[in-house]
Amino acid sequence: MYDSGKIITGLIIFVVLFTFPFWYNIGSAAYKQPKLELPKDVKECVESKEFMRTEHMQLLNEWRDMVVREHIKDYKSKLTGKEVVMSLTKTCMKCHDNKAKFCDQCHNSLAVSPYCWDCHVAPKGEK
Amino acid sequence: MRANRRKFLKIAGLATLGWSVFPNLLRASEGGEGAGHVRWGLAIDTKKLNDEVMEKAIVACHKNHNVPHIPDKREIKWLWKTTFHKAFPGQMLDNMHISEYAEKETLVLCNHCDNPPCVRVCPTKATFKRADGITMMDFHRCIGCRYCMAACPFGARSFNFYDPKKFLKSEEITTQFPTRTKGVVEKCLLCYERLDEGKKPYCVEAAEGVIYFGNLNDPESEIRKVLAERYAIKRKPELGTFPSVYYLI
Fold first, then answer.
1. ipTM exceeding cut-off 0.85 for this assembly
2. What is d(CA B12, CA B32) in angstroms, rounded to the nearest whole number?
3. Residue B178 to residue A120, Cβ atoms within 8 A
4. Which CATH number does the domain housing residue B234 bear?
5. Comparing B29 with B67, which gets the higher pLDDT?
């Protein structure tokens, strides 16, 4: 085999680099779901916990289009049957009044940066 | 049933008749054009308008909608002051009612035109016409191409050259209304968020009777009554955009 030294060295370098994520994370703790500060005086969100956890982004997009484009204001909860006003700042943030202790917890640990807050104003009193 | 030519012609005739009547019946059930249809409008009483009232209206609007004060040509305007000869070019010479006060100041804002050129040119439908006559903006969809700014004959649109949050004091920002972001066009939205709550726009409330507000399609509304009584003009009527903002002279 010609140039076996170079080839084998190259292969070793490749394997080491390719498996970098695996051995880099050896010993570090497994991913833990962040602890969220939930509103104390309210028991239920507009939908179930599981639905909100997985679908809140779609729900918010839907709310946005309904309010801005379709001129529909109220949303009927599939969970409680109650009507709520579709508004990020007036409905969601009324209960979840601390963005840093709620929204940012998961978003930061999962490294997602939604652009909601480029324009929408988070409730005051944090920091 | 044996089909013959006579029967076929009878059925075909009846079908044609039915087909021609049917669309009209459908339309009849809609209640005719414009019935029950809201078109919001403003009437600004230029006789009662003074500097103090204008200032109050502008502050109320800009404060509650997080409109930043940027002291150069890249300013953001929703509601602002201008002179008569700038607001009504082409109407100054032949309009004896206003020719005497060319330099007098008046309030101008988005006219919420019935035939808005900004809506026609918007490539993303970020600007669109709401059923109640508001020329609405979906800031989420605006890509900042500024076609609408070129199209608007009233200069009612402003582009965010800067991040507006830099020019807003954090203690003055209202959480009830979003700010905008850099690269987005904005304008007056006729306080759609207040109308949905059954309130009048901020400028109307702050001007205390100097600005009339109501449904232009309702002959019984306050605005229609005042427009019937007094002489009123609109900005640049020759362009055919049909503004919803009237100026009582």
1. no
2. 30
3. yes
4. 3.30.70.20
5. B67
